[in-house]
Amino acid sequence: MNRERKIIRNWLRFFIVCLFISGATAIPIEQELTYVVNHFPFEGSIRGWFEEVLVGIKRTSENYPFLFYGFDWLAFAHFLFAILFIGPLRDPVKNKWIIEFGIIACILIIPFALIMGGFRGMPFWWRLIDCSFGVIGLIPLIICLKNIKRLETGEKAQSDKKEDFDLLIA
User: Fold this and answer.
1) Is 122 a residue whose pLDDT tops 70?
2) What is the pLDDT of residues 32-89, one digit of tens each?
3) How many CB atoms lie within 10 A of CB 33?
4) What 8-state DSSP symbol labels residue 66?
5) Domain count across the chain
6) Which domain holds residue 20?
7) What phi and psi, each to the nearest 5 degrees, are found at residue 29?
8) Model confidence at 167, in pLDDT bands (50, 70, 90)?
């Protein structure tokens, strides 16, 4: 059972750090995008897309900076979700529902990105990148869930043995 707990803890730490970093990158969007456009050797339509997005970000920053408050809330949500996963880090069996919630959220990223990205005019390749976050997030969460189920089985078996022993000595 210690092996399962170690696997769960390691994958959850990785997942929490990724959520936190993902949130932190939502705040300095103009600086990040400027860096990407200036330092990465994109060609053709991909470069054109990044340049167009950068122009939109700069114009928004100059004329409507309050709209970036939405990015701040996006970051905040990522930080909250990262904190949420501390529960199963402490007690994976008791907080299995948080892992299940995370799996559902990762699955829902896919239709949401495909549908809403289409409404917002995002290129299909960009929507696939967004979908990949859901797919990648599923990996550690499914590994954790499988190990939590092993822990549950082991804890139930130990509990049953203890009950049998208690009945013998009673």
Assistant:
1) yes
2) 999 999 999 888 889 999 999 999 999 999 999 999 999 999 999 999 999 999 999 9
3) 18
4) G
5) 1
6) 2-169
7) -60, -40
8) low
